[in-house]
Amino acid sequence: MAKGLTTTILHADRQSEIEHGAVHKPMHPAVAFGYRSSRDLAAVFQGERPGHVYGRQGNPTTAALEAKVSLMERAVGTVCFSTGMAAIGSMLVALLRKGDHLVSSQFLFGNTNSLLQTLAAIGVEVTLADATDAGAIERALRPETRLVFVETIANPATQIADLAAIGDLCAARGVLYVVDSTMTSPWLFQPVSVKASLVVHSLTKWIGGHGNALGGSVSDTGLYDWTKYPHIAAPYRKGNPANWGLQQIRKKGLRDIGATLSAEHAHRLSVGAETLALRLDKASANALALATWLQAQPGVARVAYPGLPSHPQHARARDWFRRFGGLMAFELREGIDCFDFLDALQVVIKSSHLGDTRTLAIPVSHTIFFEMGAAQRVQMGIGESLIRLSVGIEDYDDLQGDFEQALAKVAA
Ligand SMILES: *Cc1c(COP(=O)(O)O)cnc(C)c1O
Questions:
Q1: CA–CA separation, 303 vs 97, rounded Å?
Q2: Where does ligand 1 bind, in terms of residues with CB under 6 Å?
């Protein structure tokens, strides 16, 4: 019988060999893995038998986390990396060549946008379109389009991509469909349900959840037919075609780029993931109550939160996601200085990062979206006084109380 997500995570390590009965997969910091038989060593190198050879290409602790992420996403396999950006960057470098075209969303996490510009500078064609409308993505497709990359709930302004229609479009055209589900996590949404080919996570955020370890992952849902992908190198066109893409992402991604997740951080992320559902339920409940309260305050001009009926894609969020998540963005009324307001907060921490147990706030245009300049911020829907809020699991009254006193202070 299929188990629930939390039961699955808690008992995942025991599905493989249990070392000393330990309930956690032990930490394996070894860089080198030795074999009694040199033939065995060669067989592992050639992919003829499972095993580890060198720590840059993974270790047993990271492999246990990969198995866990695969279970959470109903995926055929997962490769972990040292950060979310390492996962996205390594995956794209492993799959794309000069002259290839990719389509992504104009509402995109700033660092991913920056990465796409870097790829454009070295010969990958990039088109950014309004991913809330599958028609805009369709118009951007070309014969040489290799993949479409979107986020579920865009960071920071919470636009929700036309996930299901883009999934149908990519399936019909045979285009690889990559979904960054960091903001939703497998507890709120499984991208396989909208025909995603690859699912990306920054494990640093909700899955790890405690702001104490960086990590990223790429999972293959098994829906994409890799025999149709033009750039799978001969050594990875072996065995079940469902594994070809991930074989190349693992081999080329980890070997060539080397942004490997360490055993210690894999362990921390695994332990964090055990409470994913508990944390995200609480953060979502806090966020919905806070967004509802904030939008009624005279000092607040607008609130973007998928759980509010005023959100342009509220119906999608309600239909597709278990809850509305912990991320929101809001703007204060004209005349209230966003720095003064943030400095008046006492419980909420002024910090980048999101998906933490603690509530974090940041003035977006002045920090994470500063470098790109005003013109691009307009295109990405980022207002100059926008504040991004990642709601944590604090007791709700303490959060509302903090915003109440801060608003009173700046209104005075
Ligand atoms: C944070 C984030 C990333 C990058 O993850 P890191 O672990 O910080 O490198 C990628 N995508 C989204 C949507 C994010 O929020």
A1: 41
A2: 83-85, 109, 111-112, 151, 155, 180, 182-183, 202, 204-205, 214, 216
pLDDT along the chain (412 residues), means of 10: 89 84 91 96 90 95 97 98 98 97 94 95 97 98 98 94 98 98 98 98 98 98 97 93 96 96 98 98 98 97 97 98 97 93 97 96 89 82 88 98 96 80
Tell me, in angstroms, the distance from the centre of ligand 1 to residue 257's CA: 18
Give the span between the Cα atoms of 208 and 205, in whole angstroms. Answer: 6
Q: Which of 109, 159, 212 to mutate to test the pocket of ligand 1 (most atoms within 8 A of CB)?
A: 109
Asked if residues 386 and 367 have their Cβ atoms less than 8 Å apart, the reply is no
The minimum-distance atom of ligand 1 relative to the CA of 203 is 7
Strand partners, 78: 219
pTM above 0.85, yes or no: yes
Domains of the chain and CATH, by start: 5-273 (3.40.640.10), 277-411 (3.90.1150.10)
